[in-house]
Amino acid sequence: MIQKSGSAIWKGTLKEGNGVVSTQSGVLDDEAYTFAKRFGDEAGTNPEELIGAAHAGCYSMALSGVLGNYDLKAETISTKANVSLEKVEGGFAVTKVHLDVSAAIPGADEETFLKAANDAKEGCPISKLLNAEITLDAKLT
């Protein structure tokens, strides 16, 4: 079993308080986040942005792995994960993630690429973690 960790510290009220997030690796080390960064237009990170980055990275790696099953190797896989946070009954929830992927894969045909792209969406560990609708636009370049 592989275990990785992240941590957060929050101080104060929801709207006026502030917090920091860190990762085990130290890539994020006491990175500030606030209500305005999460729900407003203030620049900075927030949990949904971090989930998007994690999902995009996981998906890109998963797609590379699935392509290997077809003896295909991507030159590049570029993925953006758009995470939707919505007010629902009882509070807020991440309700959707839309993956937008573009890949350059020598020798790949459209049908094989789309099958691999969808298989990666289903097989990505972060996709399996999220209790949200996950959609995909995949473009072979």
Write the layout of secondary structure elements.
Elements: E1 6-11, E2 18-23, E3 31-34, H1 35-39, H2 47-69, E4 76-88, E5 91-104, H3 110-123, H4 125-129, E6 133-140
Parallel strand pairs: 5-6
Antiparallel strand pairs: 1-2, 2-3, 4-5
Summarize the model shown.
Helix content is 33%, strand content 36%. The chain is of the alpha+beta class and 141 residues long. It has two domains: 6-39, no CATH class; 47-140, GMP Synthetase, Chain A, domain 3, CATH 3.30.300.20.
Short descriptors:
alpha+beta, 141 residues, three-stranded mixed beta sheet, 36% strand, GMP Synthetase, Chain A, domain 3, 2 domains
Describe this structure in words.
By secondary structure, this protein is of the alpha+beta class. The protein folds into two domains: 6-39, no CATH class; 47-140, K homology (KH) domain (GMP Synthetase, Chain A, domain 3, 2-Layer Sandwich), CATH 3.30.300.20. It is 33% helix and 36% strand. The strands form two sheets. A three-stranded antiparallel β-sheet has the order 1-2-3. A hairpin with a 7-residue loop joins strand 2 and strand 3 (31-34).
Q: Roughly how much helix do the residues carry, as a percent range?
A: 25-40%
Q: What structural class results from the helix and strand content?
A: alpha+beta
What's the shape?
Answer: elongated
Q: Main sheet: which strands, in order across?
A: 1-2-3
Give the strand content: 35-45%
What is the succession of H and E elements? EEEHHEEHHE
Give the CATH superfamily of the largest domain.
K homology (KH) domain
Uncertain segments are none
Q: What is the CA–CA distance across the termini?
A: 36 Å
Largest sheet at a glance?
3 strands, antiparallel
Instruction: Output the CATH topology of the largest domain.
Output: GMP Synthetase, Chain A, domain 3
CATH class of the largest domain: Alpha Beta
- What is the CATH architecture assignment of the largest domain? 2-Layer Sandwich
Task: Compute the average pLDDT.
Answer: 95
Overall radius of gyration = 17 Å
Number of strands: 6
Q: How many domain modules?
A: 2
Give the helix tally: 4
